[in-house]
Design a protein that fits this description.
Helices cover 47% and strands 12% of the residues. The chain is of the alpha+beta class and 389 residues long. Strand 7 and strand 8 form a beta hairpin. The protein is globular, with a radius of gyration of 20 Å. The termini are far apart. The relative contact order is 0.19. The protein binds protoporphyrin IX containing FE. Protoporphyrin IX containing FE (HEM) binds at residues 61, 65, 79-80, 91, 142, 225-226, 229-230, 233-234, 237, 270, 275-276, 279, 304, 331-333, 337, 339-341, 344-345. Pfam families: p450 (PF00067).
Length: 389
């Protein structure tokens, strides 16, 4: 039987920095496409992607969501690498702590921290929008919430980057990341749970194990999920926002003039730039994707960043437009594995943008330096000068 195939490499330096032409070819080739080079399938169009994400019984996460066998073995039992009902037990542990009610409770604290952080950064004159503005904020907020011991904190950005790289195909970037992924799991296993702050996510995880709600073996993978998933993703979104607003000053004027556009602008930033490029699934049975049959037992890439630029779904998808408010974007995934921390990411990013919008009239940027990673996309550096309002 014939099916659409492509011989493109999504993992060269060039493709990781500028992936959108490859994604266009995947969408053009069909609703599901076999990528010959790595022997995996890809779903890049919006509608079939959303349908596949909703169908966890056919598109299972339980064999891991990377392409590398080694990383899938290390991350076994991670919330993101399980199916219901195990998944729902794990997800339930922190559901209260990330609920809309809990986020309302922490909103004042996060906004205050954002105001102070932005003041400090702007006082430097020129600054790097990645390393000085975007990166330190989620590191502080998320790690305080998780209650991660101070001595481990300098390690976490390296761990997070490695965790996303380690799930790549068999290329050097993937192999080089694997030891750091293993170090992360080994060091998290050494945490003294009694030392975790009262009320922290970490404490809630170990309490759930003590109460028999989850296995003790699930504690380290759960800690890992919340430590690594909540950093580079948000960092990439905030740095992308600064680049987009520098390149489209009229869009910055629009949200400065009307703060009610802020929530929609955040949706548009993550639709347009998709901090997470893809995760994968394995088919548990033959899957008919709009007439293309993916055989049972196939590894399938869920191309969030491609779905978010699908011309079948979005009018003029390359255009960045804060008035678009694309509430149904796929940057946070969809359905059972839809991002558990999206409310927190939104709160952090919008608090920073609000603090900037009252102080900055224009961003002037130098040359952006991409940070190449197998599964996430963002910048390593963005030299910035903020013209004060
Ligand atoms: C802009 C920022 C973020 C983006 C773009 C993002 C993206 C994603 C995506 C695409 C998924 C879906 C995984 C799948 O389909 O298999 C996901 C899941 C997840 N995210 Fe996020 N994320 C962000 C921020 C955060 C934050 C701040 C946290 C927590 C502190 C977090 C924690 C998680 C967790 C725990 C999962 C797994 C959920 C599950 O398997 O049920 N994320 N995220």
């Amino acid at each position: 039987m014939t099916h659409p195939t492509l011989d493109i490499d999504l993992f060269t330096d060039e493709a990781l920095a500028e992936p959108f032409e490859g994604y266009r070819q995947i969408r053009e080739a069909g609703p599901a496409v076999f990528l010959e080079r790595y022997g995996v399938w890809a779903i890049g169009r919006y509608e079939p992607l959303r349908a596949a994400l909703a169908d966890w019984e056919t598109f299972s996460s339980a064999q891991g969501i990377g392409l590398s066998q080694a990383s899938n073995r290390t991350t076994k039992g991670l919330i993101i690498a399980t199916d219901p009902p195990e998944h729902d037990r794990l997800r339930g542990v922190l559901a209260d702590k990330l609920s809309p009610r809990a986020l309302r409770g922490m909103g004042g604290w996060i906004r205050e921290q954002a105001e102070a952080h932005v003041e400090r950064v702007l006082a430097q004159g020129g600054f790097d929008a990645v390393t000085a503005l975007a990166a330190p904020f989620p590191v502080q907020i998320v790690l305080d919430l998780v209650g991660l011991p101070q001595e481990m904190r300098p390690k976490v950005l390296g761990w997070a980057e490695a965790a996303f790289n380690a799930g790549g195909p068999p290329v050097p970037r993937t192999f080089e990341a694997q030891p750091l992924l293993e170090e992360q799991f080994a060091m998290l296993a050494e945490i003294d749970s009694d030392a975790l702050a009262e009320g922290s996510f970490g404490r809630a995880i170990y309490d759930a194990a003590a109460e028999g709600k989850i296995d003790r073996d699930s504690c380290v993978p759960l800690m890992s999920a919340y430590v690594t998933a909540g950093l580079d993703t948000t960092i990439n979104a905030v740095s992308a926002a600064i680049q987009l607003f520098a390149e489209h000053p009229e869009q910055w004027d629009a949200i400065r003039a009307d703060q009610s556009l802020m929530g929609g602008a955040f949706n548009e930033i993550v639709r347009h730039q998709s901090p997470v490029s893809w995760f994968s699934r394995v088919t548990t049975r033959d899957a008919d994707v709009d007439g293309v049959v993916i055989p049972a037992g196939s590894r399938v890439m869920m191309m969030y960043a491609s779905g978010n630029r699908d011309e079948r779904k979005w009018d003029d998808p390359e255009r960045f437009d804060v008035h678009r408010n694309p509430v149904d974007h796929l940057a946070f995934g969809y359905a059972v594995h839809g991002c558990a921390g999206q409310g927190l990411a939104r709160l952090e990013a919008i608090s920073l943008l609000q603090a900037l919008s009252t102080r900055v009239a224009r961003f002037e940027i130098g040359t952006p330096v991409p940070r190449l990673n197998n599964r996430i996309r963002g910048l390593a550096s963005l030299p910035t000068v903020a013209v004060r309002a």
